[in-house]
Amino acid sequence: MTKHDNLIGGKWLPSNTYSENRNPSNTDEVVGLYAQGSVDDVDAAVAAARKAAPGWAAATPQVRHDLLEEVGRKLAERAEDYGRLLSREEGKTLAEGIGETMRAAQVFKFFAGEALRVTGDLQASVRPDIDVEVTREPVGVIGLITPWNFPIAIPAWKTAPALAYGNCVVLKPADLTPGCAHVIAGLLDECGCPPGVFNLVMGRGSVVGEAIVTHPDVDAVSFTGSVATGSHIAEVCGRLKRKCQLEMGGKNPMVVLDDADLDVAVSACLNGTFFSTGQRCTASSRLIVQAGIHDAFVEKLKAAMLALKVGDALDPATQIGPVVDEKQLSSNLAYVDLARKEGAKVIGGERLELDVPGYFQAPALFLETTNSMRINREEIFGPCGSVIKVADFEEAITVANDTEFGLSAGICTTSLKHARDFKRRVRAGMVMVNLPTAGVDFHVPFGGTRGSSFGPREQGRYAAEFFTTVKTSYLFAG
Ligand code: NDP
Asked: Which residue in 91, 26, 92, 85 sits closest to 353, CA to CA?
């Protein structure tokens, strides 16, 4: 079995321990052995990044562009192989795995372009004969901590802007899915990334993640994952006075009004709620449905959900792959039990035993629920959706906004007035009209409000807000 090492200071360094990366579609299959990094590895990676920082900050935009462009090109060229690896380690269907790899490729190519477009301002001073110049500079050494649910796209959408804007990086991917991040590290190395500019330290969050976040020589941290870990990172970064960017959970509302096109609504909700096994922070977990369309909508969505094929991620017939691991599956099943205890009518949601050992779960629909139930307040992160019946548009907006989160929100309607009103009044960072709450473009900002996100937005040109710092220079030429 091949051992996959950490990349530190341009060298692939072996570790004392390696963890088994297992396939959630077939837990008998070990995808690979991946290094378990230590605090010493983090120290070495941060030191390498710090050493490389002045050189990379001074590298021309053309140099940064060429590196990112080449990584993007190779990712796209090998998307089939990497997508297969992604599906084997995370459990997304092969189509989703390849799609996510293509997205990572697009992200690298986008930021290759952005490396050429770093701009500033030249402003007139309020005093005579003085020029004022506002320029963007790299932040320095950035710690990137990523989750398991988008194992290639999220490392890409943090790494590419960090490097494009001249920063050096220490990346720690989720322990459950290190394979795709290892691919990105391999490509950067293969494409000539200078030693220390990008470092990969795999391992546990409590060891490697914690060491990155608390390291005195890290200038900023970008994190995606749970609210609990994100809140902890925010506290540490606040105490250490360093920049942080957090993307956390969601409890995303999808409103279906009486005037919706029923087929459009069912298709958006089926995709948003169940695809990628519901393991998306943008998943549509609260389906807020107006009374007039409620019964027809529920009947149609239920039939479509029950027809979904759950199975091995690599089987072309599979529409819903496995849950990522036993812990997440147990948590999902506990929420299905809780839904019953709270008085919901539960359709599906049971554990499925297939021919091979894996973490399979039938998608679940919770009917006759209220927004105060715990199943409608806490992020489940599995293939589970709740239906909440409301009387009218005003009640729908009130329920949609009654949550601690604010990532994505959707509405299905044929009324321009309702669509416009919803876009303005819903408290979320992203709004979808007649589209699933999940599924976003790669070149525009991604992020939310309230408990979902903290700090500047990710992706698109708005990523510059986090990955650069602004300098104001005054010049008197005499
Ligand atoms: P975590 O927040 O624990 O994991 C996210 C990343 O943070 C992982 O790389 C993890 O490492 C790392 N990490 C964990 N502890 C620390 C720490 N003290 N310091 C620095 N980094 C740390 O989420 P889980 O994977 O445990 O998932 C739990 C729940 O979080 C899910 O059920 C879901 O509700 C939510 N979640 C939300 C995501 C989103 O996109 N918003 C993505 C993933 C999960 P490692 O895992 O290697 O130990």
From this structure: 26
Question: Hey, which residues are catalytic here?
Answer: 247, 281
Write down the pTM of the prediction.
Answer: 0.97
Ligand 1 atom nearest to CA at 331: 32
**What is the torsion angle, in degrees rounded to the nearest 10, for the CA atoms of residue 120, residue 125, residue 126 and residue 127?**
160
Distance 145 CA to ligand 1 centre (A): 9
What is the band of 21 on the pLDDT scale with cuts at 50, 70, 90? very high
Pocket test for ligand 1, best of 218, 229, 240 (most atoms within 8 A of CB): 229
Q: What is the pLDDT of residues 263-296, one digit of tens each?
A: 999 999 999 999 999 999 999 999 999 999 999 9
Of all helices (H) and strands (E), which one includes residue 133?
strand 130-138
Distance CA 210, CA 212 (A): 5
pLDDT of residue 478: 84
189 three-state secondary structure: helix
Give the containing element (helix H, strand E) for 412. Answer: strand 408-412
DSSP state of 376: G
Q: What one-letter code names the amino acid at 407?
A: L
* Segment 82-104 mean pLDDT: 98
DSSP string, 202-242: -S-IIIIIHHHHH-TT--EEEEES-HHHHHHHHHHHHHHT-
Spatial strand order of the sheet with 130-138 comes to 121-124, 130-138, 468-476
Question: In this structure, what is the dihedral angle of CA atoms 398, 399, 401, 405, given to the nearest 10 degrees?
Answer: 170
Tokens representing 234 are 């925010």
> Which residues, in sequence order, are CB contacts of 89 under 8 Å at separation 6+?
21, 23, 31, 151, 176, 177, 178, 179, 180
Tokens of 443: 């070149």
- Give residue 225 CA to ligand 1 midpoint distance, Å: 4
What is the arrangement of strands in the sheet containing 168-172, beginning at the earlier edge strand? 11-13, 6-8, 198-200, 168-172, 141-145, 220-224, 243-247, 453-454
